[in-house]
C-alpha cells in the first residue's frame, strides 16, 4: 500500500522547504493540480464509464487538499456543493492559507466529514497592527495630512497643519468598540489599552470573565448597545450569511454622532453605500478600510474623501504571515492524516469543528444504534 495522497492547489511552497521535503513528503505523495479552470477541475474530479472500463478521477483517492498560498490555488472558483460532491470519500481535510474562508462552504465540507482548517493565528499580529494604525489615523486625520504633504504646496501644507490641530483627537480616553472578540481583536484590545482607550466588545459568544479581566474589556449585551457607546468601532468578524451587511444604514444610525468606523475583516461586512452616506452627512467623522466591497476595485467615492484611510488589504501582508500560513497548512494535514490515510486526530485550527463532530455523531449512531 502506497502513501496517502495530498492534492496541492496553487503555487509551490516558498519558505518551509525543510518541513515540506521532510515530514510532509515522507508521509504523503504530493500531486499538483494541473486543471486550471473550473470546468477542467470538475472533469478531473469525475469518474466516467463509457463503453470502456471505468475511468477513475485524475487525482485518485486523495486524502487531503493543500492550499499554501491564499493568492493562488483558487482557479476553480467557489468551493460549493457542486465541487464538494465530487470529492472522493477518502478526503479528510482541506487545509488552506488565509484567515478568511468565505470562498468555501465549510459547512458543506463538514457534512461530508471533511475538516476545513485555515491559517488562524498566522496573521494575528499583522492585522492587529494594521487596526492600530487605522485607529491612530482616524483620530488624528493622518490621511488628510499625508495627502496635503504630497502636494508639495506650502500653502496647502500650512492650511492643513492649522486645521488638523482643531479637529484631531488623541485616542486616549475614548471608547473602542470591537465587533467580535477573536484572536486578532484580543490583540487589538491590548494595543488599544496601551493608547489609553477603554475597550468594549460584542460577540455572539461572551468570553469567560477571567479572559475579559485579562484583556481589560467590557462586554456589551448587543451590537446596538456597543454601537451606541463606542467612539470608534472596529469590525472583526468572518463574512457569512449572517454578517454580510452587518454594518448598514440602520446600524450606522445607531452609532454616536462623529464616531469612527474601521474594517479589517471582509469588505462585504459593511454596506459601503450606507457608509458613504454616513460620511457625507457627517454622522461618521472618519473611516479606515483595509478591505473593500468590490475588491480589488475600491469605491470611487471613498477615494475622494480625505477623512477615509484606505489600504490594499494588507492587514496580514507581512513575510511572517506568509511563512506561517504555509507551515500551518502542512501541520494541520500532518495532525489529521495518518500514514495509512486514516484519521489521526483533529486539525490545529479547525473552522467547521461543530459540523464535523455532528456528522461523526450521526454516523456513529447509525453504525452503533442505542439498544435502550
UniProtKB/TrEMBL annotation:
<keyword id="KW-0560">Oxidoreductase</keyword>
<dbReference type="GO" id="GO:0016618">
    <property type="term" value="F:hydroxypyruvate reductase [NAD(P)H] activity"/>
</dbReference>
<dbReference type="Pfam" id="PF00389">
    <property type="entry name" value="2-Hacid_dh"/>
</dbReference>
<protein>
    <recommendedName>
        <fullName>D-isomer specific 2-hydroxyacid dehydrogenase NAD-binding domain-containing protein</fullName>
    </recommendedName>
</protein>
<feature type="domain" description="D-isomer specific 2-hydroxyacid dehydrogenase catalytic">
    <location>
        <begin position="78"/>
        <end position="316"/>
    </location>
</feature>
<dbReference type="InterPro" id="IPR006139">
    <property type="entry name" value="D-isomer_2_OHA_DH_cat_dom"/>
</dbReference>
<dbReference type="Pfam" id="PF02826">
    <property type="entry name" value="2-Hacid_dh_C"/>
</dbReference>
<dbReference type="InterPro" id="IPR036291">
    <property type="entry name" value="NAD(P)-bd_dom_sf"/>
</dbReference>
<dbReference type="InterPro" id="IPR029753">
    <property type="entry name" value="D-isomer_DH_CS"/>
</dbReference>
<feature type="domain" description="D-isomer specific 2-hydroxyacid dehydrogenase NAD-binding">
    <location>
        <begin position="133"/>
        <end position="315"/>
    </location>
</feature>
<dbReference type="InterPro" id="IPR050223">
    <property type="entry name" value="D-isomer_2-hydroxyacid_DH"/>
</dbReference>
<dbReference type="GO" id="GO:0030267">
    <property type="term" value="F:glyoxylate reductase (NADPH) activity"/>
</dbReference>
<dbReference type="GO" id="GO:0051287">
    <property type="term" value="F:NAD binding"/>
</dbReference>
<dbReference type="InterPro" id="IPR006140">
    <property type="entry name" value="D-isomer_DH_NAD-bd"/>
</dbReference>
<dbReference type="GO" id="GO:0005829">
    <property type="term" value="C:cytosol"/>
</dbReference>
<comment type="similarity">
    <text>Belongs to the D-isomer specific 2-hydroxyacid dehydrogenase family.</text>
</comment>
